[in-house]
Every structure is written in structure tokens, then in C-alpha cells.
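RESIDUES AND SHAPES:
===
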Amino acid sequence: MYNVKDFGALGNGVNLDSPAIQKAIDTCSENGGGTVFLPVGKYVCGTIHMKSHVHLLFEKCAVILGSKNIADFDPLEENPSNSEYQDLSHSYFHHSLFHADNVEDIAITGFGKIDMQSEWEVTETWCRACKIIAFKECREVVIRDLVMLNATDLAVYLAGCEYVTISGLNIAAHVDGISPDCCRNVTISDCIVDTGDDAIVPKCSYTLGYLKAMENLTISNCVCRSSASAIKFGTESNSAFRNITVTGCTIYNTGLKGLAIQACDGAVIEGLTISNISMQNVGNPILMMILDRARGPKPCPVGIIRNVNISNVVITGPYPDEYQVTMAQNARDYFNNNVTAKQKPIPFLIAGQPDSPIQNLTLSNITFVAPGGGTEEDRDIKLPEVRDGYPISDMFGPKFPAYGMWARHVDNIKLYNVEFMTEKPDARDAVVLENVTRFKNI
């Protein structure tokens, strides 16, 4: 075991300790691997590079503080490749607390804490600071039992990684929480994620410079709150999402989407099983959408969503009487002031495209208590066709002709024991279908 204090770390909350911790990690790796031990203390750190076969272990109550001097972190990559195909945060890796590229058998665990201290970096092109963890094309990764606070860029971002275990994290971050991108064989379990942007958000972007599916993923027993989306697939969606299970999760006080499945950039999304979900006070509980945004290398086909099963879901209020929208750019205000960000609640939104309908969707054992309040005039609302753009719940308009589910361009929807109710009287129909074939409601 390599104790970081034997390499010069002070843990006094003042001195910069990342050089000493880096020396311990390098020595451990050079000697074939082992455990680097972080005893109780407060360690101010800039960028730390993880190396193969190293386990960084926090003693209970040990704390890493992200340095408030941005110069202590590796700089952003200059002109990262393929950055036009995904949001900027998904193009940068080096500007992070923990960075690793193409290493294997690494772990960061222990009942300690990482606090990035809400430090923001504001320039003409950048209004975030540092990720906590940014791993690229790594294998055999374990991140477990840590508190992660006040990150002003993505908290945990993994791109192209395989055989990943994330468990027992307690994350409170200004932007996204856990973001596996183009990863395989991943489990995310028993985490509490509270974010100013999306909480748990798998992606299949083009950040690697080639197409790779997000597949063999299980998300279980997590609690999520977000000003945006709680559990979202996309928006970056260039390749495929396959063989994915979400189960046993609780979502509450979430401003936009509870569960979002979005094929915007040509992705094929198939084989999703979502079950045993509880939601309270969520703006748009379920969104499934195909758009032809085509943000990717050409040719970029229209995406596909098929073979999705959602079951055993309970969605209730109470809903606030007044609503506000807090998007990601206002994440600091949301997080610092504990704002419950809300848009006016809308029904399940299921929208394919005329040339690519959503296929084979099964909803079973679902109870949705919507706020209600729709009028007779709302029954006649005609919603526009939407082909491209960024998928948000209100891109079709602020009101919908249904209070329970609105679906368009879908082939084969089955509803088994699905009950739509309202808190207040509502003159609209529970379900409105447009260009939907093979619909069954039992």
C-alpha cells in the first residue's frame, strides 16, 4: 500500500497535494500496481492521472478539494477532433480532476468526499470548469462509495470504456451527473444523483472519432432529481443503444423529463427494458422522440427506436400551482438556491417520424396521475410536425390535446393495465393518437 503522505502530501486543505498524489500513483503503477491510500485530511488537488492497476482508496472522511486555481488543472485540448458533433463538454477530457486515457484495471473508492467547490471558468467560449472524472477508452473501471459535490462540468464522464462498475455514489453537481458514452458492459447502481442538468445520461456520441454503441448497460436502485432530465438516453446519439435495463429507480422534483429516449443523430435504439420506477412532480414523465438533427458525419440517417418495454411505473404529484423553467445554463441558480425547476406538466410524449415511426412499444402496469385542468378548447389543439432541432418537451407547443399520452408516427403500441387520472377535472381525452397503427389497450 502506498500512503500519499509518504510522498509529501500534507492534507491540510491549503497546500497543493496533487503532485504528491501523482507521484504515489506513478510509483504504484511502475511497481506493478496496488493500492494508493488517502488517509483522513483535506487534499487540495488539480489534475491527477490514473494509471493501470492502481486503486485509489479514500479513508473514511478523507476529502479532496478541487483547486480554485484553474492553472492547477491540465488545459483544455486545443481543437479537439470531432467537436462539431457533440456538446463541447463531451469533446474535452484533460481538464479534469481525475483523467485517464487507454488504461486498465483502475479504481477510485472509499467513504470519502470530493468537493470541486463550485469553481466556474468563464471565457468567451467556455462557462464551466473541471470534470471530476473523465476516462477515455479504459477497461475494468470501478468508482464506488464516494460523495461528489459542486462539479461545474460533468461529474463522471466515461467515453468508450468497457467493464465499468459505478456504485454507491452521492452526487450533487451543477451540470450532468453520470454520463457513460459509447461504453459497454456497465452497471450503475445505488446512487443518489441531484443535478442542475441531466442526472444519469447515457450517450453514443462521435467523441471517439468512430461509431461505437452504448450497450449492455444496467441502471438500478438510483434516486434522481434534476432541473432537466433524470434518466436520458441521448441527446448525442450517433451510433446505437442496445441491451439496456433500468429498474428500481426513484425520480422526483424534475423539471423537464423523467425518462427520455431520444434518437436525434441517426442512432438505433432497441432492446430497452424499464421497470419499477416511481416518479413524483415531474414535468414530462416519459418522452420518446425521433428527430433528424443529423449532427454527425455524413451520411447521417434518420434514427430508429424499436422494441421498448416500460412497466410497473407510478407517476404522481403534488404539482406546484406555478411553474418555471430552469435550463442548464442557469444550473448555478438552480443548485445554489435549491430551486424545484418546473415546466407545466405534459403527457407522455411519443413522437416518431413519418419515414421512421417508433416501433413495438409496450407500456404495462402504469399509473399516471396528471395535474389536469385542460379545457374543451384544448381538445382541438393541432400540434406541428417537428423534423429536427434539440428535443425538448415543449417543442410541439405549450399545450397538448391529451392529458395522459400523445403519440404520433408509431407502429404497434400495446397498453396493458395503464391508468391515466387527473388531480383536477380535465376536458381532454386521456390518449390522443395520430398516424398510429396497431394500437392495443387492454
